[in-house]
Amino acid sequence: MKKEKVYNEAVKEDEKQASESGNPSGGAACDANVSDAAAEETAKMADGDAVNRDADSAEQPEAVAQAVEEAVAEWKDRFLRLQAEFDNYRKRTLKEKMDLVQTGGRDVLLAMLPVRDDVQRAVAAMEKSDDVEALRQGVQLISQKFTEALRQKGVVEMELKEKEFDADVAEAVAKFAAGEELKGKVIDVVQTGYMLGDKVLRFAKVVVGE
């Protein structure tokens, strides 16, 4: 009986201390409930993030595909435009070349026609006149006029006499002993050579000293 009394008093003392300390066992239960609620909320947020990531992942390939399709369309359009421009350029340059050839030949012929007129007048004068000196002067004027017409078209006569023989612009048709001073030089021009700009229009035929 004495032991039972002591036990009952101890239990009552523990209950009294518990009530005075604000029921610590109840606080522990409350903390546990708060922890559970926080864990549940965290789980919900994690699930939401996962759903958003899945949605972004689903939308990203479509956006990339659309961007690629737009880029391909843009480059295709540029390629077609460039191809059309090049085709137009090719046709235009071809036409210009054809026009240049025709116009160039026409210009040369037009420049030669006045010389032709002078030659005809000289022939007519020779039939009516016996003045040899006047005829000689007329022919010289025609020659000068013809040379000037050629010069205006870029054709220039080669001046090779007594110069070093150059196989790039002349052809040696003969060799003649001319002494040490004229050795390897042009001593006579059999056929005059002409340059058109910086290119040989006709090679000269010359005699070279040896």
TrEMBL record:
<feature type="compositionally biased region" description="Basic and acidic residues">
    <location>
        <begin position="1"/>
        <end position="18"/>
    </location>
</feature>
<protein>
    <recommendedName>
        <fullName>Protein GrpE</fullName>
    </recommendedName>
</protein>
<dbReference type="GO" id="GO:0042803">
    <property type="term" value="F:protein homodimerization activity"/>
</dbReference>
<keyword id="KW-0963">Cytoplasm</keyword>
<dbReference type="InterPro" id="IPR000740">
    <property type="entry name" value="GrpE"/>
</dbReference>
<dbReference type="InterPro" id="IPR013805">
    <property type="entry name" value="GrpE_CC"/>
</dbReference>
<comment type="similarity">
    <text>Belongs to the GrpE family.</text>
</comment>
<keyword id="KW-0175">Coiled coil</keyword>
<feature type="compositionally biased region" description="Basic and acidic residues">
    <location>
        <begin position="41"/>
        <end position="56"/>
    </location>
</feature>
<comment type="function">
    <text>Participates actively in the response to hyperosmotic and heat shock by preventing the aggregation of stress-denatured proteins, in association with DnaK and GrpE. It is the nucleotide exchange factor for DnaK and may function as a thermosensor. Unfolded proteins bind initially to DnaJ; upon interaction with the DnaJ-bound protein, DnaK hydrolyzes its bound ATP, resulting in the formation of a stable complex. GrpE releases ADP from DnaK; ATP binding to DnaK triggers the release of the substrate protein, thus completing the reaction cycle.</text>
</comment>
<dbReference type="GO" id="GO:0051082">
    <property type="term" value="F:unfolded protein binding"/>
</dbReference>
<keyword id="KW-0143">Chaperone</keyword>
<dbReference type="GO" id="GO:0000774">
    <property type="term" value="F:adenyl-nucleotide exchange factor activity"/>
</dbReference>
<dbReference type="GO" id="GO:0005737">
    <property type="term" value="C:cytoplasm"/>
</dbReference>
<dbReference type="InterPro" id="IPR009012">
    <property type="entry name" value="GrpE_head"/>
</dbReference>
<comment type="subunit">
    <text>Homodimer.</text>
</comment>
<feature type="coiled-coil region">
    <location>
        <begin position="65"/>
        <end position="92"/>
    </location>
</feature>
<dbReference type="GO" id="GO:0051087">
    <property type="term" value="F:protein-folding chaperone binding"/>
</dbReference>
<feature type="region of interest" description="Disordered">
    <location>
        <begin position="1"/>
        <end position="60"/>
    </location>
</feature>
<keyword id="KW-0346">Stress response</keyword>
<feature type="compositionally biased region" description="Low complexity">
    <location>
        <begin position="28"/>
        <end position="37"/>
    </location>
</feature>
<dbReference type="Pfam" id="PF01025">
    <property type="entry name" value="GrpE"/>
</dbReference>
<dbReference type="GO" id="GO:0006457">
    <property type="term" value="P:protein folding"/>
</dbReference>
